[in-house]
Write a structure and sequence with these properties.
Elements: H1 18-31, H2 41-46, E1 58-61, E2 80-83, H3 93-104
Parallel strand pairs: 1-2
Length: 116
């Protein structure tokens, strides 16, 4: 499925908060006077900080922490998470490949249920 992929998106979020992003999105929807019936996931997505960037497939959390820390709360709804004890400064190509290998072995459900 991915043989024609030519790249990936790597985004660094500096001084960013997922809750603030959602609040700002709602404020802009209200400011633009949408009717309540018009508000859906697509409209909220439209008003996020980076509406044209796809939701992440994989979120890598370094330093052994097992929390998302207010990061991409909306966009990470169906993301896969990889937790590693390696600190960010030591997260090298080998560690990245470990994360990708782990991700490769998973069956994505996107909120659905996989039958056995």
């Amino acid at each position: 499925m991915t043989e024609r992929n030519t790249g990936l998106n790597l985004i660094f979020a500096i001084n960013y908060g997922g809750r603030s992003e959602i609040v700002d999105s709602v404020k802009n929807i209200v400011k633009n006077r949408y009717k309540i019936e018009e508000i859906d996931e697509n409209l909220i997505n439209k008003y996020l900080y980076l509406p044209d960037v796809p939701d992440p497939d994989l979120i890598i959390r370094t330093s052994g922490e097992k929390r998302i820390s207010n990061f991409l709360l909306w966009q990470s709804a169906y993301s896969e998470f990889y937790f590693t004890p390696v600190l960010w400064p030591d997260f090298d190509e080998n560690e990245f490949l470990k994360a990708l290998y782990d991700y490769q072995r998973r069956k994505r459900k996107f909120g659905g249920i996989i039958e056995k």
